[in-house]
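Entry for the shared binder. Reason: the reviewer on the internal report wants the predicted structure included alongside the sequence.
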Amino acid sequence: MKPYKLLENILLDIEEGIKNEIDAFTLSKRYNLSEVHLRRLFSFAFNKTISGYIRSRTLSESLNDLLNTDKNVIDIALEYGFGYEQSYSRSFRREFGISPGNLRKSGQIVKILPPLHLFDENKINDNAFFGPEFVIVPQFHMIGKPHQIPFEISIKTAPNVGKLFWENERRQIKKTINPDVYIGFTHKINHEKKYSEYLPSVQVRNLSCIPQGLSGATFNTSTCARFRYIGQHHFYDINREIANKMYGAILKYMNDENAKYSLLRDKIYFERIDASQYDGNYCQMEWFTPVTEK
């Protein structure tokens, strides 16, 4: 199943299963995925654990019965899948900062978690795309094989040289950090001559030992926009069509006059792929660029 439809169905199943003790195990069986990969996929897409999301949605929905009926708390607890009133009350207090009984008495306003939804802007060829969110990326070092790539062929050429690096040169690099994580680093962007330097690379502890023919670079601590992509294909198969649509979605944000930040993608950016997260069905890619407040 394509990622967009899969995630859409999972969100709907959670809402429909709130009173039927829906959980990650049940969903993984329903969609023929391992529970581990389902959890990773959900967390990557929504920046929430699936268990935490189900718990928050269950507790938020239980407020309707708590505040609009005279049902006993124990009956509400059982109806929403909690085995004991005490376990419901403990989870309720952690979620809302008040006990169910005290909320009934006080009429205090509490913040709930509404259902998550997907929208047209989250879809690329039935695959899923999210962002931006804004994060701090700490300084890191990388070593890779440098390539000077003209703008007009960058979308086609970058994946090809990245694949060659991943299959060959990366084995020469020692003292790597997260050796399963590919970093495609675009920098030294020359707008006058219409080319940039692309460094397919892996992260290293320092730049003290760079193999011959390779090059090192440092990304300095920056506030960045982060976009996320999930595709039903191997990470090698991120092609021109997919890349064009991703950049189109990114450009849409860049041209939004109401956006708080300006993206600095005309200066530096990088994509990040954790090969260990590929489950034979779905690849995951992150794209980062520094931002500045408008």
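Summary line for the report: The first helix runs from residue 3 to 16.
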